[in-house]
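Summary for the steering committee. The consortium agreed at its last meeting that each partner would contribute one worked example illustrating the joint modelling workflow. Our contribution is presented below. We chose a case with several input lines so that the handling of multiple components could be demonstrated. No manual editing was applied between input and output; the record is shown as generated.
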Amino acid sequence: MNATVNSAVRERMHVRFLLSDAGPLLALILLMAIGSMISPVFLSKGNLYNILSQIAVLGVGALGMTYVMISGFFDLSVGGVLSLAGVLVVGLQPSFGFTVALLAVVAMGVGIGCANGLLLRTIRGDFGASIMITFGVGTILAAVALLYSNGYSMTVQYSRFLSWLERGGVAGIPAVAVVLMICAAVLHVILRYTVLGRYMYLAGASARVALSSGVPVYTIRTIALCMSALMAVIGGLMETAQTASASPVAGVGYELDVVAAVAIGGTSLSGGWGSVVRTIVGVLLVGVLNNVLILVGLSTPEQMIAQGLIILVALITDRQRKSNLS
Amino acid sequence: MEPILRIKGISKSFPGVQALRNVSLDIFPAEVHGIVGANGAGKSTLMKVLSGVIQPDAGEIVWKGAQVRFPTPLAAQRQGIAIIHQEFSLVPTLSVAENIFLGRLAGKPWKVSWRELYDEASALLERVGAKVHPKTLVRQLRIADMQFVEIAKALSFRAEIVIMDEPSAVLSGPELQSLFRTIEHLTQSGVGVVYISHRLEEITDICERISVMRDGQVVETFPRAEANRERIIRGIAGADIQEMERRQESQGAREVVLDVVNLSLGHKLTNIRFSLRRGEILGLAGLVGSGRSEIARSLFGLEKNAVGEFMLNNRRIRFQQWSPRKAIQHGITMLPEDRKNEGLLLSHPMYMNVTMTRLPKVSRKGWMQFRREILAAENFVERLRIKAPSVHARPLTLSGGNQQKVVFGKCLFSEPQVLILDEPTRGVDIGARQEIYHIIRDLAAEGKSILLISSDWAELMPLCDRIIVIHEGKVKAEFHAHEADVEKIMQAALN
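What follows is the complete predicted structure of the assembly.
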């Protein structure tokens, strides 16, 4: 604005910006330092392996949700998608073989994403509408999963892919984490370096501005919803492999855990800002926190309280960053 | 007569900026005091000091002979200083009367005395000269009437000075006249009015005294008798600005680029017909609500219910199947009226704003080419003379004029053949206005066809080749540049 803004003010703004911007990463480093001091086990190979295999299901869902949130929507159907993908892949395998079952659930994911997107396009839905529509779709999917499995957990039959997901790995990294890393890399590159990625940010920053600048806002958001459903399908496969069974209620509460992880990483709830890297940091933060709490012997309710507090802190710092910006 | 409000030697600085230096000003009761100045000259800071929003670093405020401080806006309001901001502070879903007495409804805490409320509201509205029923919901009002409600609200605090920040920005024709009548009502009842505006005609018409601000100072104050356009402009700019000459009659007949055969939109537009030639600037005049903005929005595909068809380069296109995306692909772009909500991503970097209308130009096979994008954006910064530290700057940090140039850059990036400009100089100060006029003329000279909407009819005449006047959703009249004048336009616009 003018050249005379004194450098002290600018310096201070810079430091404050850095603090709130790199906050989640600093918190993660701090938490790891604390973890390694509290418990000798924390930095052991076995424990790190545990953390990585525990965050994978949450992580893939969070990756997809990152797209949806950046493009200005919300996706509450991922819990239903995860449950249904699990029971379907297990249920279809005996009659059609694993490959067909796998293709079927992938197609189902894409189809659900498109359905979400089309419904929202038809009603010209905004952020609020996306919450309600995807919640409705997710509720139906959860019910379908219950109907299909008659409410029982279904036991997995042997398949090479699922047993690799459960026990396999590359260079000491669990297979599920490898899948997570591959997904993260692909989604990061798309978001950061392609026209499609740019469109995601534009659609989320302001649908009105984007629409009147020729951005196909609803198409872009539909793609984001497909991505998120697809990631939830992968999450369902991982969950099924890890528990060696498919529970029709596996995805209950999954959607909000995923949203929380994305928000903790610092991706804006109101769209237009965020990144895959942030989401990965958020997911790691949640994973490491839970792990440290277990290591010091705290129970589930206490873990839940800690996670709740982190969500609050993440949102408050997000608001503050925004008011610093304007 | 004694001034009711004296400002003596007020200074205020923000980190890095001296917003006000040693400003002194006297406001008398029952006078209209005009304040003019470029954006950033310190007008709004001064008004914020007067209304208690911010505290001055030095100087004093004398109110009715006694030195006062206004620690909060409420304190200023209680003393009798009311401010009407450009953006209204009304609650759209409440009635007129509820808005006037918001937070001070008559009656007991548990029971509103509606009759008393409506009676008092009616009395105030009458004093303002507004024909508005107190039970009407604010969202059903025309913008001009909302302004009256704001003024009535100010009077309900027994205001003795009313500060109006660009009250005319959204008004023209009869609405403007009724605003002026209200101001007259106010001064007759002894209220002093501080009137801020960018439109010089109004200032010289209605203000008894005029103060010119520049760089945080009041450079001069003079009575109306000594005021003239040149003097005011010189004061604002600190130098002479060459005012625009009328446009020469365009040379020879050029081919028609856009031919609207018929366009209707609910009860807002009926059978609109006009055509636009290559390199032509066509003005759309009319009152707010006459349908001029709807014409622009229909042509850009933003009105879903528009019916009819138009020819674009001899291709027949139906409004029903039109969308902004298709419009941009076929060479029509629009600069929207509402820059902040429809034009710009205020907190995203400038280069993202500029290139968003046509990303394929800065990408290959779907991959962004960031170097090319930055270069392309820098090219526009240079061409449009946007004053910004870099293309990474966020529009939020730029002045109104520079923000508007970013929107121009964004529109031009899509290489349009037809450019629709809806109020391109709103909220833009005089210096930047001249630059925008030049940009518009240069574009026409390059062969682009321009559809220009403006409430400021005085700017339409020198800019346009032709002007069509819209009244109640119909084309009412058409003038060539050399035969148009404000009176003729006014007559057509009013019927």
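The domain at 24-325 of chain A is CATH 1.10.3470 (ABC transporter involved in vitamin B12 uptake, BtuC). The interface with chain B takes residues 1-2, 4-6, 9, 193-199, 201-202, 205-206, 208-216, 272, 325-326 of chain A (CB under 8 Å).
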